[in-house]
Structure prediction request, 195 residues.
Amino acid sequence: MASQLGYSVGEDAGIHCETSFSRNGVSLEPFKKYRIQPVNPDKVTFVIVNVSKEDGGIYTSYAVDRNTWFRSEQSDLVELLIKDTDLPKPSISMSPGWVEFLGSNITIQCRARGPVKRFYLHRFGYPYAGLPRMIETDGDVADFLFIDVSWDQLGEYFCTYRPPWGFLMSMPSNTVALQLLGGSYSSDDAFEASS
Prediction:
């Protein structure tokens, strides 16, 4: 199941649907107050207008041929989470605090006060470059392991979490940065993690 990034109450939330099925209609379940925004002939975005906490949930879409009323199989499930400003922000740390060379290993740890169902690790500035990494947990800590650190992992990271109740997401933690020291692009240079 894929998770959408958390939306704030009052925002318009977009759920993207892509199908190669020849159709002249698409639908979203469960039905909500949405409008359809075409992207191209095989892609649409369902825009849920003015989201509330009650709009959080699990969604699926399907295509319908209005001539034959043939209905495609359901899409993958998408989990829509709503940001809850009442949840305590998580904390984030990185270990070790610096990396001497490409190929080293690093751990980013997310921690929350209270029970957590799932932690998410996001890369700042790249909300649509792929879904955030996530870890299911019964506790209040998650360790995200980076094995063999590479150039494309440079950047700032932050955590959010989903509590065990509702379809809610915490506000983001502070950030930690995996960055190149000295401005040189040699693999002999070190990376530094700072918060």
